[in-house]
Amino acid sequence: MPRALEIVIASVAFLLTLPLLVLSLLVSSLLIGFPPFYSSRRRGRGGVEYTHWKVRSMKSGRETGRVFFESHRLNKWGRFLRRLHLDELPELCHIISGRMSIVGPRPLPSSLLEGLDTSLRDTVKPGWTGPAQVRLLRTGRLDKRLQIRLDNHYVGHRSTLYDVRIMLGTISAAFTGRRQDMSPCSTADRIEFGKRY
Questions:
Q1: Per-residue pLDDT tens for 124-135?
Q2: 3-state DSSP: the chain helix, strand, coil percent, rounded to 5?
Q3: Residue 106: which of 66, 72, 69 has the closest Cα?
Q4: Angle subtended at Cα 162 by Cα 160 and Cα 164, rounded to the nearest 5 degrees
Q5: Nearby residues of 103 by Cβ (< 8 Å), 6 or more positions away
Q6: 8 Å CB contact between 145 and 135
Q7: 33 in the Ramachandran plot: left (φ > 0), alpha (ψ -120 to 50) or beta?
Q8: Would you list the DSSP string of 109-138?
């Protein structure tokens, strides 16, 4: 997606959702704890790490990098934030600043990518949304190697039209909770993913 278009979309989205962001931060401060922001080091394009910000949706505790292994740290408010992706609203600032794209591989800590070939994945900016999280992350079954395959599949097929499909799929998944078929075409990978998940 053209950079100028991403800036326009992210800026408009940020302004429209600013009241929701402020409300989310206030409620998280009361129901989860202070500070209401959660920061972590994530891997960006070229393997360069940056400080990643989200609305705090989980209570303090041991972190594994996979929310379905840490569900005991989630209360009803945290689940609500994550179901509607409200915890990810601060990421719009990363898109505006150029650290992230609207669509791309999910930004992950480098520790979760150790021992994996991320050379293709690292050629693009991490995304606010992408086919891996829309298609599989909501099930709690996505392993790291499968995520890398989905990310590489996206990098090899990315286009503005594909990005738009993923964005629409993200909105649909947020409100319906259903997995979306985010493959750009009928491929062997899509068939395999369908059988497994």
A1: 999 998 887 777
A2: 55, 10, 35
A3: 66
A4: 70
A5: 1, 127, 128, 129, 130, 154, 158, 162, 163, 166, 167
A6: no
A7: left
A8: -GGGGTTS--TTGGGS--EEE-HHHHHTGG
Q: Which amino acid is residue 52, in one-letter code?
A: H
CB atoms within 10 A of CB 26: 11
In Å, how far are 49, 143, 170, 196 from 74, measured between CA atoms?
27, 21, 22, 27
At residue 21 the predicted structure's pLDDT band, cuts being 50, 70 and 90, is: very high
45-55 pLDDT tens trace: 998 999 999 99
C-alpha dist (Å) from residue 107 to 61, 100, 131, 187, 189: 21, 8, 13, 25, 22
- pLDDT tens-place string over residues 154-171: 999 889 899 988 888 877
Instruction: Name the token pair of 145.
Output: 């190697």
Token duo for residue 176:
């319906």
